[in-house]
Amino acid sequence: MKYKLSLIAFAALTSVAAQAADWSDTALTYRHGSKFAEPYGNTDISKNIVGLTHVSGYKYGTNFFNVDMLMSNSKDPATATSSEGAREVYVVYRNTVDLEKATGKSFKTSGVRGLGVTAGFDFNTKTDAGYNSKKEMFVVGPTLMLDVPGFLNVSLLALFESNSPFNGYSSTSTPRYNYDTHPMISLSWGIPFSVASVPLSFEGFANLITAKGKNEFGGDTAAETNIDMQVMYDMSSAVNASKNTFKVGLEYQYWKNKFGNPTTATTNSSTGQAGPGAFAKTPMIRAEYHF
Q1: I need a surface site. Which of 129, 167, 221, 288 has the fewest CB within 10 A?
Q2: 3-state secondary structure of 276
Q3: Strand 224-234 to strand 198-209: parallel, antiparallel, or no bridges (unpaired)?
Q4: For residue 2, what pLDDT is reported?
Q5: Which backbone phi and psi does 245 adopt, to 5 degrees?
Q6: What is the pLDDT of residues 161-179, one digit of tens each?
Q7: Buried (b) or exposed (e) across 256-286, using 16+ Cβ within 10 A?
Q8: Domain 2-290 class?
């Protein structure tokens, strides 16, 4: 119940902040890769990902919202007997309150632009043969805003995560299970640069997450590393559009022990080995339309 209340509260905050936005950037995105992987499942899965991203600034800070629709091929099946691929929706929301804007006190120092407090949530729903994830996660913690071209934010967040999966092979549902509260170091960045006058940007995020105790089946979880980064080319001038309207580029995701599932058995337990599907190294093509 507390997670559902958190989702409702932050949805309300998003609506209020959007109405009072000082600036905003909304984008439709498309990604494709053929080297995705799923714990306890296959590697070399092809996925098409369509996303909507919204970033805005308001009087006291910034909002970030992203929703992705992930569409797998048959290597990640929708059901145990289906040749259709799985479908997943994954939503992320973060609100960062800039403490200088909120208090009037400057936190600038050498190499540091400011200090903030970040809160938000993740949730997903997936229809697949094995796990059918229904993740709910609330996050909160301090954020350090570094002084670089563009932005580079480093957050230390406490994660309050639960899930209520359904096993399609055995038709077994699991009541919502709360993992141990655990920390995450989260970096996000967008740094413009150019090569021979070609407008480029280096963008992405990196999440370093500790183990979260036992999973809902009694197995050990593992520390998780998820790095997703891209180099984007602003091709807007080539089609007579405003700067940063159309972008294309290459993206790469390194995801070890995906969702806390150990690729190999942990040192104190022989259970929980998720196999090579828990370690994805995925190159992608990416395109964005900003409006």
Answers
A1: 167
A2: helix
A3: antiparallel
A4: 46
A5: -85, -50
A6: 999 999 877 888 999 999 9
A7: bbbbbbbbeebeeeeebbbbebbbbebebeb
A8: mainly beta
Phi, psi of 235 (to 5 degrees): -95, 15
Between 127 and 172, name the one with better pLDDT: 127
| Cα–Cα distance measured from residue 142 to residue 39, given in angstroms and rounded to the nearest whole number | 31
Q: Pick from 79, 162, 161: which is nearest to 126 by CA?
A: 79
- C-alpha count within 13 angstroms, C-beta hemisphere, residue 249: 23
51, containing H or E segment: strand 45-58
Q: What is the mean pLDDT of the chain?
A: 92
Paired with 131 in beta bridges are none
Alpha carbon distance 111, 203 (integer Å):
19
10 or 106, which is more confident: 106
Distance in angstroms (rounded) separating the CA atoms of residues 71 and 84: 10
Question: How much is the pTM?
Answer: 0.90
Residue range 38-52: mean pLDDT, rounded: 96
Please check whether residue 221 is in contact with residue 261, taking contact to mean a CB–CB distance below 8 angstroms. Answer: yes
Helix, strand or coil, per DSSP, at residue 83: coil
Q: What's the rounded mean pLDDT across residues 141-151?
A: 98
The amino acid occupying position 271 is T
Q: What is the pLDDT of residue 270?
A: 44
Residue 5, both tokens: 């209340």
